[in-house]
Amino acid sequence: MGQICNRCFTEKPLTEEFFFKHPTNKIGFLYQCKVCTSASTKKYREDNAEVVLEKKKNQWLKFNFKRTSEWYTKTLAEQDGHCALCPYIPTDRRLQVDHDHKCCPTPRGGNRQTCGECIRGLLCENCNTDLGRLEGWLEQIQGTVVPLAGTWLYRAVKYLEDSA
Questions:
Q1: Where are the domains of the chain?
Q2: Which of 19, 72, 129, 135 qualifies as a cystine partner to 29, CB 3.0-4.6 A?
Q3: What is the pTM of this model?
């Protein structure tokens, strides 16, 4: 049994080789063949690159951190448009969402989903990495750490204390 693609009007066998499955259509497949569906999807993504990218960013924030793009924009504004620990201003990519790894550990190379309750702020890649190392070192220190005021270490320790 064949199916005529409603895009290219070519009759093709009604199989998964030629048509994508679609559970709600009467025939169980899309009405466009795979070639036409892929071509129209590619064209849409090219014509709407900004919309597609923003949607992906929103999905990523929601899935991993239970946050929205509005939250990101608001938090970045609260941080005066830069990393929470240094003057880095994001240009071509977003800052990283920092969370407490004691609450929601991230396995190496694993899923970085969090509960959403342990989010601390937005950090550049360098500060996020360095803060993770600092937390590990602080666990090994007995007593109080008193860094020099105005230094990155001072801001980082205060950042951790304020979010505890």
A1: 2-47, 49-162
A2: 19
A3: 0.70
